[in-house]
Amino acid sequence: xxxxxxTAAAWLLALIWIxxxxxxxxxxxxPAAYATAFRFDAPLTLANFAAAWxxxxxxxxxxxxxxxxxxxxxxxxxxxxLAAFAFARxxxxxxxxAFLLVLVQLMVMPDVLIxxxxxxxxxxxxxDSLGAIGLPYMASGFGIFLLRQTFKSVPRELDEAARIEGAxxxxxxxxxxxxxxxxxxxxxxxxxxxxxxNNFLWPLIVTNSVETRPLTVGLQIFASTDQxxxxxxxxxxxxxxxxxxxxxxxxxxxxxxxxxxxxxxx
Amino acid sequence: MKRLxxxxxxxxxxxxxxxxGARRATxxxxxxxxxxxxxxxxxxxxxxxxxxxxxEKEHADVTVNAIYSGSYQxxxxxxxxxxxxxxxxHLAVALSTDMFTFIDEDAILPxxxxxxxxxxxxxxxxxxxxxxxxxxxxxxxxxxxxxxTIVLYWNKTAFRAAGLxxxxxxxxxxxxxxxxxxxxxxxxxxxxxxxVEIPSSGFPYWLFQGLTTENGAIxxxxxxxxxxxxxxxxxxxxxxxxxLGRKWQVMPQGIIEWGxxxxxxxxxxxAMMWTTTGNLTNVRANAPFPFGVAMLPAQKRRGSPTGGGNxxxxxxxxxxxxxxALAFVQxxxxxxxxxxxxxxxxxxxxxxxxxxxxxxxxxVANFPAAAVARDQLEFAVAEFSTHDNQRVTKILNxxxxxxxxxxxxxxxxxxxxxxxxxxxxxPYRRS
Lengths: 266, 431
Known about the structure:
heterodimer; A: mainly alpha; MetI-like fold; globular; B: alpha/beta; D-Maltodextrin-Binding Protein, domain 2; 2 domains; 11-stranded mixed β-sheet; two-stranded antiparallel sheet; 19 helices; disordered N terminus
């Protein structure tokens, strides 16, 4: 009885979750006249996708977004791993204070820092570049915190055994800690990639040219506020820009779910 | 732009802390950064790029870097961020109502000062209704570019089906209510077709300002530091808007979504709608029935606020850059360009002489509805705009929505909004 109820609840949640996506799928593949008229004889069309693709240089935007999320994730993994390891396993003066400062970063919304970050990028002379979009996010407080907690839970015995075998610090990190934290890396990677794939305001403000702007900026031109919303083209563009993430998620679904479960239990 | 900045920064570092602003004084050919929002459908970025290329052909020493900057709100955020970081754009198109915000942030320059005595004829050549949102403290801060007003669209087929004259739009509030009553078609408990929709999501104050103007009220003073929400005429206007839904039931109750109102119109869910002239091209392309466009109905008078975006010139730029930016704005607002922009986008051409150009005359001859907005300008008033505009506007919006959803009585909602707005505006009344 209880399990039947749970199954029903799960189905309900899944249905609520899939509805917007299903609507987007319906609207994107049908002419605008059928945006709210669900009829089985409605003609299918790809014209919405063609129109959306034409409206902005999406090929370039795809490349930019791809480079951006890859760059940010790579830098985050390196920086956060090293920092988290130091906070977890290396004794040094002021460690508690330094870690506290990293935690404070979690409390500050990135949007509050837009003006200050912009000024920093201007001083560095890298306004209007992919680097400027990514730089403020690379030393991620969340990533450091998450990995530190994971590293702390690695059994001391493994650590000591490796040391006795003569492993140096970096070797120890690479051979013992990183492999054990794999599920956490996967979960963090998913969060990071989807966040930066979707990030809009900061990239818009700090970049000026087609060569540096990500997908979200291209998507924004369909949200033309003075006019009515053309659902067909908006949903087509949204599906198009989120497709790589959706496909990747469906392909690696099992790994993601498992890694979240494992990362969450700790 | 990118390379220029980097070089300048290296130079600045070499000179040990010379201010970044110095970069503006170096190169002889002038490069301008121009932020523009996109607020209507269509290939706006391509049209702008085309116009910029034409300008550069005629001005070999000026390069204009046209930068798409999102919605109006995004554009203002981007411009103000850049200003605060000491790297402002040279010019931008932003909401005409953000003028006080830009002035308070000390971000913009008055056009009349930059243009000198020669600019007066040019500035006097715009429709006075559009210039109403450009003047403050005796100066001209904005130049009209992509401007609009509210008009009423009606479905002629639906009018005929309801036994109304398909070529006659309601001219008064009472007529609109009466027509809407005949046009509302019910099937059981559901409504198959509403009489009218006045959108109220996002920025209800704008459409509401149509009603208050028609009822003989103004909502703010020219200095932008006083509002008049609790006047009886304003309360009456809100009562009418609420009654359309709740009492007479000829308009959907509650909040009506701005973005989907045209869609409702195309799908015959409403027979009349109030929306921007910026929708003209959209409606023309998508309405599957003959439609009409009319001025908003009158109560004590005709009336509508204007809306849309103006050009602004930013501070912290060199005199040569200012002159180049001014030349660009003047070039973009010549009668021929203003006409071209209006025809391609659906915005109202901002100068009377743009309407006498051959291209515009041809356009109006083919599509008389385009001239309705121009004719209504005679009755148009400044769009609601005050100091600390976003906050004060939000107060009014929240009040209106509270009344529309039945949470508060109209008089109460407006009295509350008045006292809250007074609190925000008090600091701007000194001096």
